[in-house]
Specification:
The chain is mainly alpha-helical and 200 residues long. The protein is built from 12 helices and no strands. Helices cover 62% and strands 0% of the residues.
Length: 200
């Protein structure tokens, strides 16, 4: 299983930049988070899993794999929206998945070309697709492309983790940005720990 790669350099940097985060890192230890290097697979999985529990998302994904064999632009285009929907998702999500497959096949988006773009450019390209918002694009940056400096304002668990870490009751955007800049250029590693903190 491929996992998000980081090590002592990133940890030492974050320890120096933020004492509280450093103590949390020492307490939690190394985190192994699965990554999905195939961008199309990751994109379809994230759309299918939006606003459902992890367990429900796994069930939907298994059914989708059973239907398609392997999840590719070609296989998603070869079936109907209704068939995708019967895997356990809304018709709207099924439509998004089909349209993403079609967009790749007809050249509207070049997923391989995303690797050469900046984070902001990747987000702009991905959010041009139906059903893909900023949060979904940011999760792909971390868990597919292993980009190093992503801290998502749109992720409630990240914000909750920050609030717990710093012992604050509210978190506005300006304060969030101050913390985000503090973690840079290793914001994605900080994000792994903020998620962990938020679930404690």
């Amino acid at each position: 299983m491929a996992t998000f790669q980081y090590g002592s350099r990133e940890i030492e940097y974050l320890r120096r930049r933020d004492g509280r985060l450093g103590r949390a890192i020492d307490e939690i230890g190394m985190i192994e988070r699965k990554v999905t290097p195939d961008l199309f697979t990751a994109l379809v999985a994230s759309v299918a899993g939006q606003q459902v529990s992890a367990k429900a998302a796994e069930t939907v994904w298994r059914r989708l794999e059973n239907l398609l064999g392997s999840v590719t632009p070609q296989t998603t285009s070869a079936v109907s929206r209704e068939e995708i929907q019967q895997c356990g998702m809304s018709m709207r999500k099924a439509g998004y998945i089909k349209s993403i497959g079609d967009a790749v096949l007809n050249g509207e988006i070049d997923l391989d070309g995303l690797w050469d773009l900046s984070d902001d450019e990747v987000i702009a390209r991905l959010t041009a697709l139906d059903g893909v918002g900023v949060w979904t694009a940011e999760m792909l940056l971390i868990f597919s492309m292993q980009r190093q400096d992503v801290v998502s304002w749109g992720d409630f668990a990240i914000r909750r983790g920050m609030m717990q870490l710093y012992g604050i009751d509210t978190l506005d955007r300006a304060r969030f940005e101050r913390y985000r800049r503090r973690y840079s250029p290793y914001g994605s590693v900080a994000s792994l720990y903020l998620w962990e903190i938020s679930h404690r």
